[in-house]
Amino acid sequence: MHIVIPVFEALTALDAVGPYEVLQRLPGATVTFAGHEAGPVRTENGFLGVLADTTFEDAGQPDVVVVPGGIGTRALLEDERLLGWLRDVHAGSRFTTSVCTGSLLLAAAGLLDGLTATTHWGARDVLRRLGAEPVAERVVEHLDRRIITAAGVSSGIDMALRLSELLVDRTAAEAMQLMIEYDPQPPTSVGRIELAGEDVLARVAAYSEDKR
Question: Which of 29, 43, 104, 199 sits 20 to 30 Å CA-CA off 53?
């Protein structure tokens, strides 16, 4: 089972690494990080480097594609090299998936036209402009199209567990969950924008501006 995770400058680390931690444990799985060029790319704040093993073109035909998000997706919405690669590999993949604003790239490639899809809450309007119908769900499946999208950052782990079930079986998904001890019990309860007060939204805006 060949899994390819495309990486690029200013990606969100957990969008890629969360699903990786689950899927790389499946029996027979191999994971390749692919980029425009082989070598390191930096995450959004520049603190963390992620290594692309090879180029998109040399990554081979994946069984599963996991497209991460991050502010770097905005610069790629007209990058025909990446978008064309996504269209090409989707034709032969078992599942083409995204996490967070990775769905913007799937939409820009024409893979979400007219479909419901999810993304980070801050990018729903962009997703709509790109031809998809954004919904406030953690994981959205279109199994007849072999497309799955996950919402912001941490939801990529949920999606990867669901993929484990689809690729192997329910017990495999449960085994993956136990292996990474994924049992969320956060000390706070504002994991969705619908639950956030004005004070939290103001702090999010301030922190986001500080990182630019």
Answer: 104
| Residue 103: active-site member | no
Residues 6-62 pLDDT 10s = 999 999 999 999 999 999 999 999 999 999 999 999 999 999 999 999 999 999 999
For 15-24, write each residue's pLDDT tens digit: 999 999 999 9
Task: Give the up-direction half-sphere exposure of residue 154: CA atoms within 13 A in the CB hemisphere.
Answer: 6
Helices (H), 144-190: 155-167, 170-179
- Contact predicate 6/67, CB 8 Å: yes
Dihedral angle, C-alpha 119, 129, 209, 152, nearest 10 °: 0
Q: Which of 3, 27, 28 is nearest to 17 (CA)?
A: 3
Q: Which domains does the chain have, with CATH numbers?
A: 2-185 (3.40.50.880)
In degrees rounded to 5, what are phi and psi of residue 170?
-60, -40
What is the identity of the amino acid at 92? G
**Catalytic pick among 83, 100, 132, 160:** 100
